[in-house]
């Protein structure tokens, strides 16, 4: 997992490379570097730390060049040091390489190369690539040498490489994303579109086992075997403004505040006369299906739980699996629909699970945010959540867009499979869905989360409970909280509290209690059980819910359909996490040890 960028043009491209790296920092931010060719050789500048630090050293060194590559790293092999930062070079300094992925056979290759006298200067798996390239350059011209080097590799990679004195960037992909940006007078190559979206929206996605040679006036795409490929470019619909902070201090804040817009986009045109109207899945699309398995990680897993509960309510057997736990022991047949929920579409655990399901005979569907992502290409079908680019490492608007997209999809599936809907009165759900963006705005207007964050700052731990559709919201609230505040937070099914976790409860452990209005009084009783042991209770509910009579504090949500109330509660919890992290001075958009897209298993 890392972000790579390359730029090929006639004028100086250093600022474009650095700007691209800043936009890719969500993929990793423990070290960064660039290499440029300026007619006087390859200049490499790299360091541990974030792109800001790289910018300073680049500024001091005054390197420039029209053709260059860059990298921002999330360490897998070797700690985040200057030496382990990319680009990596060969022994002569004439080859430079950036890489995202994992080279599985790097140990054997390193031993072989070291035995031949090649000297390594880092602990990374990547460093074998420039040395292999160097070795093949002895017998081949650059393009052929690059191809040979790539052929030597096992594992996953998106690679951009340069050779001194050659006006080209060489690229290859297998299992890690790579996209070409095309504009009138320059080309880009990156792990993701936001890296260059401010310069061009015209893109060509690389497929696995493809090689690209990008020169100032042309691009050649071919298979690893050298067969030429013709592929038309496409225009991405994301607005470049969406990739900036838009005046907010953090991307996360902007992404929370913009949820009414992303939700409206997710729903737009997908609801007919209070029934699903999905272009991708017309009525009857799922007639052959008899059960559903949803695989996902992290926040996407919580959205998946929401979707599965709706399917179960409609009488469709549906299970959720943490993708990393989905293995061959799970029974699958050709009546199984496997749905992968993944914002990025690149999460390795989720892709592996989908692969397993497909190999076992399941039909596969991706629910993702990123057009052109690996999951969208590998699944039989894809449904896009249309949340727009999400840059903050903490998933916010993509969770709510996943939930509403899965709700409509769950209705389509249940109508086809069982002739049912998840709701006795679908019209009531769709009326509320239409009003959801307005309701989100009214939650944002309440402005109470900051005060609640202040009140409980310094607590020993933070617990989140909920039942039914409030349970995925409780565990999502806890994940968000721990991810960006670094404080201990746990989410529990409300009824489970008394089966063990209650031992953790003290006056120093606020219990955020999420209720949707659809449950009986049990959740209130569970909150009282915690309160009796001294824990402060914070209700996340409508104003008139019985939990407010018990609670010490309140994060209010407007009246809505009970199956959408959890989404509104989640917005309050996102704000709570945000304000707490802000008070604690955390790196909100780039929390320690994490990266947005986890492309390693
Ligand atoms: O891109 P994905 O939705 O597949 O990512 C899955 C998780 O890595 C992700 O949701 C992670 O848990 C978030 N950082 C949570 O905010």
Explain what you see.
With 601 residues, the protein is α/β, with parallel strands linked by helices. The protein has 3 domains: 3-236, Aminohydrolase, N-terminal nucleophile (Ntn) domain (Glutamine Phosphoribosylpyrophosphate, subunit 1, domain 1, 4-Layer Sandwich), CATH 3.60.20.10; 244-434, Glucose-6-phosphate isomerase like protein, domain 1 (Rossmann fold, 3-Layer(aba) Sandwich); 449-583, 3-Layer(aba) Sandwich (Rossmann fold), CATH 3.40.50. It is built from 17 helices and 24 strands. An 8-stranded antiparallel sheet has the order 3-2-4-1-10-9-11-14, covered by helices on one side. Helix 7 (259-267) runs parallel beside helix 11. The longest helix is centred in the last third of the chain and has 22 residues, at 397-418. The protein is globular, with a radius of gyration of 25 Å. The N and C termini lie close together (10 Å).
**Can you list the strand order of the major beta sheet?**
3-2-4-1-10-9-11-14
Structural class: alpha/beta
User: What is the CATH architecture term of the largest domain?
Assistant: 4-Layer Sandwich
Oligomeric assembly: single chain
Task: Give the names of the bound compounds.
Answer: 5-amino-5-deoxy-1-O-phosphono-D-mannitol
Number of domains: 3
